[in-house]
Backbone:
């Protein structure tokens, strides 16, 4: 990644996508540590879970691109309103500023969508092969009460990934435990 020129103005963009419960957040954190250890400069990680909701899992993108990615491409900080989940039901929460880093790692379901290609990211696909295992991992992380929501989410992400063909565009495909 560091040998490539920045594709988002002065920022190099890494994207970690794949189905829920596959380990995207864990991989993104490890990738960020590795890049920092290699002298990459400032590395920011931003997760789409700050923007997506059960009822609206994918439509957060246009606002994120306009308010964060477009400003970063001009060398300016971005700013986006994140979701507040403290009551169990998401509602608009605080605004978050995204400073201009050397590297931005965007991680989460649908972050590798076709629309991100204009920023020339390094796209990593992370997928635990077993669907039931992914569901159990997500529920273990977020609580048993989320199981029905994650079942619906899995169906929605299946349809999204089939239409977007995200995995096929990935530079790297990782299958933890597979």
Residues:
């Amino acid at each position: 990644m560091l040998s490539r020129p920045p594709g988002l103005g002065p920022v190099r963009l890494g994207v970690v996508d794949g189905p829920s419960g596959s380990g995207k957040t864990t991989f993104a954190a490890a990738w960020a540590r590795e890049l920092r250890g290699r002298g990459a400069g400032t590395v920011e990680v931003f997760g789409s879970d700050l923007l997506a909701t059960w009822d609206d899992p994918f439509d957060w993108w246009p606002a994120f691109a306009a308010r964060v990615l477009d400003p970063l491409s001009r060398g300016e900080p971005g700013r986006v309103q994140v979701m507040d989940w403290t009551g169990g039901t998401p509602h608009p929460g605080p605004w978050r500023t995204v400073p201009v880093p050397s590297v931005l790692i965007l991680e989460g379901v649908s972050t590798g969508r076709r629309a991100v290609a204009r920023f020339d990211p390094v796209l990593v696909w992370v997928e635990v092969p077993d669907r039931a295992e992914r569901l159990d991992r997500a529920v273990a992380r977020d609580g048993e009460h989320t199981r029905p929501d994650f079942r619906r989410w899995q169906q929605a992400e299946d349809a999204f990934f089939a239409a977007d063909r995200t995995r096929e565009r990935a530079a790297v495909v990782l299958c933890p435990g597979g």
